[in-house]
Amino acid sequence: MRTSSSVLVVGGGPTGVELASDIASVYPDKKVTLVHSGPRLLGFIGHKAGNKALDWLRSKNVDVLLEQSVDLDSISEADGIYITSAGEAIAADCHYVCVNRPLGSSWLRESIVKDSMDKYGQLMVDEHLRVKARNNIFAIGDVIDVPERKQGVLAQRHAMVVAKNLKLLLKGGNKEIKLSKYRPTVSITMVSLGKKDAVAQLPFTTMSGFLPGLIKSRELFLRKTRKLLGLENHSVFL
């Protein structure tokens, strides 16, 4: 990254937007290009949030190409030229792929939970996040079929529920009636934009700029995560 003068980011979801914005913020002299196959950035949240992210990136001279894609099976950094689906040539010293990938759960179809998987490769779980048809197997994270966004913060909430339930079951006896339930909620979505700004999708409005940036962009929830893991915090401000 440090030795590259130009960078290509493939994918305009939260990961791609955050990465492109970070590169543009930390290395303002580098040429950054973001290619996204959809008609707008951050397609999983409101139009306003996507438009604000687009305006921010373009204000930092990031070249954003919408409704175009790059053949991920043929891209190579050897020649430094990438061709989009629209025939546009992009010169870049390195690239980062930030697009959705299939769940890495195919191996589970050869395991004891194979009958608890849906057609999408997800594990079907009950309200306690216990794999269906299994009394002592729980699952958390992207692999479960709970109808909500796939986000790290939600996986943390899954883990807290499962940890409580495992402790209860390990004590022995019939604890079924006391098992904790996981209740999906509409979460606040935040996407950092460089070191100081962010865009936030709230239940009834969209915010962008320095204020939401104070919540996420300054340290990317590192302090909160380290505390959750019982680790000592260090200064992470940039």
UniProtKB/TrEMBL annotation:
Similarity remark: Belongs to the FAD-dependent oxidoreductase family.
Taxonomic superkingdom: Eukaryota
Keyword Oxidoreductase part of the UniProt annotation: yes
Residues spanning the membrane: none
Pfam families: Pyr_redox_2
Official protein name in the record: FAD/NAD(P)-binding domain-containing protein
Record keywords, A-Z: FAD, Flavoprotein, Oxidoreductase
GO cellular component, one term: cytoplasm
Gene Ontology terms for molecular function: electron-transferring-flavoprotein dehydrogenase activity; flavin adenine dinucleotide binding
Residue span, FAD/NAD(P)-binding domain: 5-149
